[in-house]
Amino acid sequence: MKKLAFLLLVAAASFSHAADVESFVTAERQTITLGDTVEEMQARMKASPMSVISHALPEKDQKAHLAIDYTYEIENVRYVITIINDKISKIQTESLDK
Predict the structure, then answer these.
(1) For a disulfide at 51, which of 16, 64, 71, 93, Cβ 3.0-4.6 Å?
(2) Distance between CA atoms of 94 and 14, rounded to whole angstroms?
(3) CA distance 16 to 90
(4) Using one digit for the tens of pLDDT, what is the confidence trace for 47-61?
(5) CA distance 62 to 19
(6) pLDDT class for 65, splitting at 50, 70, 90?
(7) Which residues pair with 74 in a beta bridge?
(8) Are 64 and 47 in contact (CB under 8 A)?
């Protein structure tokens, strides 16, 4: 089942420039999913990110939240994982095959 999900994700990424997904499988066959903690993500990735960028996300009538984007490249797909409050809140994929 996980293998099928991975193949579908790779196929979907190859047909579009960028897409948001709920999960993906690492090169070591570990699943990264929305809601995972940053510690879980780092332990499963077993690689350093290509970049780490932080930025503020203002909300109406509330204090701004800090978001951190971790960028990884796995098998010709770029993954940008956004962390808010120590949890994965967004996963964006982009095919590097052009």
Answers:
(1) 71
(2) 8
(3) 17
(4) 899 999 999 887 766
(5) 29
(6) confident
(7) 77
(8) no
* Amino acid 61: pLDDT: 65
Q: Which two tokens stand for residue 74?
A: 């796995």
71 near 78, Cβ under 8 Å?
yes
* CA proximity to 80, closest of 65, 95, 59, 98: 95
Instruction: Tell me: pLDDT of 15 over 80.
Output: no
> Are the C-beta atoms of residues 89 and 95 closer than 8 Å to each other?
no
Nearest C-alpha neighbor of 96 from the set 75, 80, 81: 75
Which three-class secondary structure state does DSSP give residue 47?
A: coil
Judged by DSSP in three states, 12 sits in helix
Question: Is the pLDDT reported for residue 98 higher than 90?
Answer: no
Using alpha carbons, select from 39, 38, 36, 71 the residue that is nearest to residue 53: 71
